[in-house]
Amino acid sequence: MNNQEIMEKGQAYVMNTYGRFPVAIVRGQGAWVFDGDGRLYLDFTSGIAVCSLGHSPPELIEALAQQAQKLWHISNLYWMEPQVRLAEKLAHVSGLDRVFFCNSGAEAVEGAIKLARKYFFRCDEGQRKEIITFHQSFHGRTLAALTATGQKKHQEGFSPLLPGFAYAKFNDLASVVKLVSKETCAIMIEPIQGEGGIRPAEIDFLSKLRELCHREGLLMIFDEIQCGVGRTGDFLAWHGYGIRPDLLTLAKGLGGGFPIGALLATNEAAAGFEPGDHASTFGGNPLACAVAEKVVDLVAREEFLHKVQEKGYALWHRLQQIEDPRVLQIRGRGLMLGMEFDREVKDLIQICLDKGLLLVAAGPNVVRFVPPLNIEKDLLEQGMDIFRDAIQEWHA
């Protein structure tokens, strides 16, 4: 089918939950994707930080094909070798101890919420049920993850939301301290807010937040669904900050495009779960784990992460060279950068699409740059040339 045919059938049969661009992507290779009319686009979205190694990487295709000939699904009532191998590797590279596997970031967040509450229940402190999160955060679309999300625009129309959440100001310790009570069990934060505008946490703020958790006996949860798995130039964002959480959520780039999520925890925190407390039918299935294991093997290498840092610096430098009075700020780390403007950027993103460059926003005024981690430097430059030309044509 061509673009028009795909879009017409989609509008007729697919539930209307996304504001979609007027294009249908049918194939991808590396940093490139092709639409139903055969047009080529340079992809600086990576499926929104999901396709960490680009589209159709041969190493992941091979890992998937090999596992597909052995076992697709068996249930978590039995041990599965690919799951165990991946858990061991994640424990070694993450600095945490235990892993629960699921299928998405929202599920990983749900698991973190349940584990935090169950942990204190087992410690005979069942009154500790409240989790502090942050304004402009984004943690997912299920009811609990949506309630944890500090953006009312995503919550409107879904009342009643779940009780047990309070919202502090990002990078404002005093606002967190005011919310801590005898009912607080955890603080959940994105080290770099993604959908909230690519806003990194200040290291002093995270350090004092860690101290607060120690002092008050709270669990610290890092949501690294978007900023984890090499995106910042470290395998995990907490490695760059040097501040270890008690729980950590992953998804997106972990599977390189194959759906998988994970909740990581220290041994102490993980002891909050016992058999029967939490489960996922498809979580940690052999196919997803085989692909994610190969992603970890490739991305966790020091040489690979060093190249991500180099390309991140190069992208930052190109963004800084853009002289436009509408630019307010450039933020982020590694290959997770945002350029904030003094107005909405949807028309700018459409101009880029028309010129063959895929970009997405992070909030109404921020253009987000999350290209594949292994993108070649010449393609990075090519994409920035298109972006520069698009800004010159943009008269928003």
Task: Give an overview in words.
- By secondary structure, this protein is an alpha/beta fold.
- It has a domain at 59-299: Type I PLP-dependent aspartate aminotransferase-like (Major domain) (Aspartate Aminotransferase, domain 2, 3-Layer(aba) Sandwich), CATH 3.40.640.10.
- Helix content is 39%, strand content 18%.
- The strands form four sheets. The protein has a seven-stranded mixed β-sheet with strand order 4-12-11-10-7-5-6, with helices on both faces.
- The longest helix has 19 residues, at 302-320.
- The chain is globular.
- The chain starts with a helix and ends with a helix.
- The model has no long low-confidence stretch (mean pLDDT 97).
Percent of residues in helices: 25-40%
Number of helices: 15
For this structure, the CATH topology of the domain at 59-299 is Aspartate Aminotransferase, domain 2
Structural class: alpha/beta
- Estimate the mean pLDDT confidence: 97
Q: Detail the poorly predicted runs.
A: none
Distance between the termini: 34 Å
> For this structure, what is the CATH class of the domain at 59-299?
Alpha Beta
Radius of gyration, in angstroms, nearest whole number: 21 Å
By CATH's scheme, which homologous superfamily of the domain at 59-299 applies? Type I PLP-dependent aspartate aminotransferase-like (Major domain)
What spatial form do the alpha-carbon principal axes imply? globular
Judging by the overall fold, what is the CATH architecture of the domain at 59-299? 3-Layer(aba) Sandwich
| Major beta sheet summary | 7 strands, mixed
Strand order, largest beta sheet: 4-12-11-10-7-5-6
Strand content: 15-25%
| Number of beta strands | 17
